[in-house]
Amino acid sequence: MRKLASGTYTYLLLGLRSLRKIMQIVREEMDAAGAQEIDMPFVQPMELWEQTGRRTDYGETLGWFTDRHGRQNVLAPTAEEVVTNLVANEVSSYKQLPLNLYQIKMKYRDEYRPRFGALRSREFIMKDAYSFDATPEGLDATYEKMYAAYCRIFTRCGLRYVVVEAQSGEIGGSGSQEFMIPCESGEDIIVHTEDGAYAANIEKAEVDPPKNSAERQAGDAVPAMEEVYTPNVGSIEAVCEFLGTKPQKMIKTLIHATENGVVVALVRGDHEVNEAKIKSVLGGAAVEMADEATIEKLTGAKVGFAGPQGLSDKVAKLVIDYAVAAMACGVTGANKTDYHVKNLVPGRDFPLEGKNVIVADIRNAVEGDTHGGKKLTFSRGIEVGHVFKLGTKYSEKLDAKFLDEQGGQKPCIMGCYGIGINRILASAIEADNDENGLILPVSIAPFEVEVIPLNNDKAEVRSAADSMYNELRASGTDVLLDDRDARPGVKFKDADLIGIPVRVVVGERGLKEGLVEIKRRTDEKAANVPLSEAVGTVRDILGEMKQALEA
RNA sequence: CGGGGCGUAGCUCAGUUUGGCUAGAGCGCUGCGUUUGGGACGCAGAGGCCGGAGGUUCAAAUCCUCUCGCCCCGACCA
After folding, report:
1. Degrees to nearest 5, angle at CA A228 with A227 and A229
2. What nucleotide is nearest A488 when CA is compared to C1'?
3. For strand B, which nucleotides have at least one atom less than 7 Å from a protein CB?
4. Would you say A275 and A256 are in contact if contact means Cβ atoms under 8 Å apart?
5. DSSP state at residue A59
6. Average pLDDT over residues A424-452
7. Scanning A60, A302, A465, A475, which has the fewest C-beta atoms within 10 Å of its C-beta?
8. CB A261: neighbour CB atoms within 10 A?
9. How far is the CA of A6 from the C1' of B64 (A)?
10. DSSP E strand boundaries for A273-373
11. Which protein residue's Cα is closest to nucleotide B69 at C1'?
């Protein structure tokens, strides 16, 4: 793999061979799961993206250009629009459903910041599948099939994976799961209970409300709230330092704009608000941070001095995190520039109930939180696959409807399923390697076995190696012959570096006794095997390795 | 887009602070010879618009301005 520019790479022979093997496995499992392979355009009309609103949703990550006719074209990052448009034109009856279409193709995302080589590149190969069902039960069945196919794909690629609950986005309530490869260099945070019964992306991980109300009751004795002068001290850290308190004692008052009006969210000073959670608490309306003008108008103070007291009547919703509701008292903004208040008591100084007040889980999980009473731990992973029940978002907007048994018009119920082909290779490399290089599973290694003739100039060595190579090839084994005129050490190091699972060494010394050496990449020492049995032994070893990946 | 860093031989980098000899090293590459079971050795060589443009100066890889590219951190993410 060689870099051309930031986030764009040329794959050379070895990398490409691995990618092809991964694609083949994916293809076989998709076909077996009843999906049909198609090929959709990489360049797509912008109008389609405007119809579904994703031009805005994708924002800057969407790559596009204007052609000579002045038309705008999207460089496809996914293909929901195109496939839904296709189905809208082709499907008119429930008898044509269910339908499951997939493609394995280059995608483009204009990433804010491509990083970690193939893990997050601008161009990448993705298998994307889209299913269309007539009923929710049908979608469930398709989803299950795809889920099972994904498990087989990652197992066959020799990867240890975990499945986590993921944020399901706009269509609340329907399922979404990510397949993650646990690994230090991963970009995603996985949250799971110690027994592994619950695992989720940090975006999604649900947190138990605190159990003890003891602290709350202690709050009854707190004196009335009091304003303090905090000139030019806006941030949490600055206020803590100024007032000699801790972030855990602070209440962050975050003002959000939604299509239904202004929403104020409260989280503890040491917690991070999770907008996706607010969104689902509010029933799916888009949520974003309010701009300065909105905040100043609402609070009458500059940004950084907002507080919940007296605001509940002025906003559409007041959303309070469980952890804030459980606080005895806290420090927050005074709704007055350069002032904060202390001794603010939840329930006394601002409401914890009422028609526009919601107490819920609206923050990211942190160390020490629990789920279902079990402690949550954190680890990193690489997202290699995502299965997602989409519902009717796209089929409604793009008019993919069919007539059901009663003759009624219904939108198709969709699911979508992605696999990052490059990421599978990248995670296999990250997951297993040593100081000598890669250790690749036989199913995705560029070659299964490498034959190394040590003394190329010796005719008998050369001919023994050649005939082994030819025999292995003839028997359908993926074999590489290193016939370079190089020193032995160079060949050994290279074979190790590129992760070839099995290595056969043909040397003058061994050949005198009719022996060659066979060594797995993971073996300490090589085994001597009679030349006549070598091909059979190699095939047995490969057979075992492949067997292990089917289990 | 914000913050930081780096652009000198194919690669990794020194030299830049304090302007001054013919711009260097290791690895790689070419030729010849000796070697040959875990990245050999000797000898001889090739290889540079010091990222680009402009400026200061007797003199610029070195100082100034602008620009382009790359890396790292952050913000974003169906």
Report:
1. 125
2. B37
3. 1, 35-40, 69-78
4. yes
5. G
6. 92
7. A60
8. 13
9. 30
10. 287-289, 317-321, 330-333, 339-344, 357-360, 370-371
11. A5
pLDDT of residue A215 exceeding 80, the answer is no
Separation between the CA of A490 and the C1’ of B27 (whole angstroms): 15
Residue count of chain A, please give it. 551
Rounded CA–C1' distance between A267 and B29, in angstroms: 62
Quote ipTM for the complex: 0.84
Question: Which nucleotide is at minimal CA–C1' distance from A112?
Answer: B76
**A84-CA/B50-C1' distance, Å:** 55
Residue type, A149: A
* pLDDT tens digits, one per residue of A334-344: 888 888 888 88
- Which residue shows structure tokens 């104020």? A264
A270-285: pLDDT as tens digits: 888 887 788 777 776 6
Best-predicted range by mean pLDDT (A146-150, A220-224, A329-333, A341-345): A146-150
Q: Predicted confidence band at A171 (pLDDT cuts at 50, 70, 90)?
A: very low
Helices (H), A91-164: 136-156
Closest nt to residue A387, judged CA to C1' = B78
Diameter of chain A by CA atoms? 97
How many alpha carbons lie under 13 Å from residue A480 in its C-beta half-sphere?
Answer: 20
Residue A486 CA and nucleotide B39 C1' are separated, in Å, by: 10
Q: Domains plus CATH for chain A?
A: 2-206+376-429 (3.30.930.10), 214-360 (3.90.960.10), 437-550 (3.40.50.800)
CA(A506)–C1'(B40) in Å? 21
